[in-house]
Fold:
Amino acid sequence: MEFNPTNPIVQLCLQGMAMEEKGDNDGALQLFVQAWQEATDNFERFTASHYIARRQTDVAEKLKWHQTTLQLAQQINDDTVNSALLSLYINMAKCYEALGDAAQARQHYDLAEAHKDVTTDKGPFYHGTRAALQVGDMLTAGYRSNYHADVIMNHVYFTAMVNGAGFAAALAKGDGLERVYIVEPTGSFENDPNVTDKKFPGNPTRSYRTSAPLKIVGEVTEWARMPEAALEKFREQLGKNKGEIIN
Structure:
């Protein structure tokens, strides 16, 4: 299942998040409910129910929507949504605590612990850049961030989604051609904390980072390129983004 930022349901959720940032939680909830009503598959329903859950003020209703989200995640059962299970179980445990059900709270905290630091994605993995590289070259940490020029990165970033790597290549600094390389991690890796649960539940973009080198094993030349107008909008948003990067 491929996460797509131009998906209509994803767009409704993005609009809802923008309203949350402005303090209009009621307006945000209306958009999340609209997303739920217009969803056409389980991933869209999973995404919408996550946001409906977090806007509930009644604990029992919040728990009900978390349970719905969990059921949808279990039906989908792939790397796009499984990374959300850790935070989902923690949220459910907190609901059970608030409802006075200590046994269920403990059970869900245990389930959350079982999903801690679990990365099951087997790839293939991709890295998007404008640098001209060769098969056998190693990508290493220690370079400036594409998104925060004053930050020297402690990790190398990659994704299991070729279109996501192409998007990163389009946003990369420099004048070179957009390139997407097939890479192999040479050490352990983790979910990228800059995206995991920051906007969408879990790690639907299947974005990862490692402090070990990435070995280039190939290159792809075909991926779905985002329209230039959409890219410009993302570049503008990046320019306005003053948030901290987790390095």
User: Anything to note?
Assistant: The longest helix spans residues 59-76. The first strand starts at residue 125 and ends at 129.
